[in-house]
What we know:
Blueprint: H1 2-12, E1 20-24, E2 27-32, H2 38-46, E3 56-59, E4 61-62, H3 64-73, E5 77-84, H4 85-94, E6 97-104, H5 117-121, H6 128-139
Parallel strand pairs: 3-5, 4-5, 5-6
Antiparallel strand pairs: 1-2, 1-3
Helix pairs in contact: 3-4, 3-6
Amino acid sequence: MKNQDIALAKSFLGKDNTVFAIAKNGNIIFTSSKKGIQPFFNALEKNPQEFYSGCSIADRIIGKAAIMLAAYLGAKEVYTPLASQHAINASLKLNLNLIYNESVAFIINRTQTGMCPMEEAVLEVEDVEKAFDILKSKLT
C-alpha cells in the first residue's frame, strides 16, 4: 500500500492548485493549496497527529522545516520535485524516505534574498518535537 500512497499523493500535486497532499491506506486524506509549512499545521487542526502515522506526503517544495514536520506527523515517505540539501540530510537521520527530482543547497525565501526563515529556524535542530514547537511559534 505504501508505494501506492506516495504515487497517489504525487498525482494530486497541481490538481486544483494543490501543492500539498497526504495519502494513507489508498486514500487522499488531506490536501492544501497553501504555501510553505502551513498545510502541516492545517492538517493537525483537522485530525490528531496519530491519524497521520504511516502516511505518505507529496509537497511542492521540501526544506528542513517541512521534513521535520513530516516526521512529526509520522510520515513514512515524502515526495517533492524540489528538496533542500538540509532536508535530504535530515531525512537520512530521521530514517524518512525522501523522494525528490532536484536538490538545492537551501530553500530560498519568498523575496529571494536569502534562506527560507522556516528552514533557517530549524537548521541546527535534530529533535522533531522541538522543531515542531519552534515552527508553530513562528507561525503564530
